[in-house]
């Protein structure tokens, strides 16, 4: 019998050619300038206060690479690329040490969210199916084998110089860091806006 799948959940990923070691040093300078940081989804880790494109020129090459790839997200969703474009909204740094993690959450009012990994880590980012769907699936009968149709969650590894991007409304979390090394990432939100009209006169 034929099988079609609809209402798919996109996740984009890529390996970047960025100086991750320089960004590592930037992240530590940012933490030294504000040791308290900001508490949002992190449990025991450090998150910077949010900042914006242009606030830290050291990150401009990275953010430009992310924005360039966000055009693919816009295209894959079928949006009008002639009249609309993506732009970088807020950005922040995450530093998780041993046993630190990030609770399940979503990013409101954005189009695409993502993470760039400054370091390698065994603590993966996890994405979750809608709870009502999963409850319905699991309450009918025992599942003998997990697959893309029935899985309650899926995960991506945190690999140095890799980028993961996903719809902002997709629930996600970060596993507890089981290693006594820092797990450093840069998170961001991307929005859509109408392009400014060019004066042809």
TrEMBL record:
Pfam families: 2OG-FeII_Oxy_5. It comes from the Bacteria. This is 2OG-Fe(II) oxygenase superfamily protein. It comes from Candidatus Nitrotoga arctica.
């Amino acid at each position: 019998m034929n099988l079609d799948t609809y209402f798919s959940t996109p996740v984009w990923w890529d390996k970047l050619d960025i100086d991750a070691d320089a960004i590592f040093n930037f992240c530590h300078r940012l933490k030294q300038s504000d040791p308290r940081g900001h508490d949002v989804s992190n449990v025991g880790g450090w998150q910077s206060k949010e900042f914006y494109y242009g606030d830290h020129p050291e990150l401009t090459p990275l953010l430009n690479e992310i924005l360039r790839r966000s055009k693919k997200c816009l295209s894959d969703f079928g949006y009008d690329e002639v009249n609309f474009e993506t732009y970088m909204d807020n950005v922040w740094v995450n530093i998780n040490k041993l046993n630190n993690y990030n609770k399940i959450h979503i990013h409101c009012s954005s189009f695409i969210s993502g993470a760039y990994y400054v370091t390698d880590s065994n603590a993966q980012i996890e994405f979750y199916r809608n709870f009502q769907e999963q409850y319905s699936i699991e309450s009918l009968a025992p599942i003998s084998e997990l697959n893309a149709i029935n899985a309650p969650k899926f995960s991506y590894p945190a690999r140095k110089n890799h980028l993961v991007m996903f719809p902002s409304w997709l629930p996600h979390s970060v596993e507890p860091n089981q290693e006594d090394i820092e797990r450093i990432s840069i998170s961001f939100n991307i929005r859509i806006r109408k392009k400014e009209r060019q004066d042809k006169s």
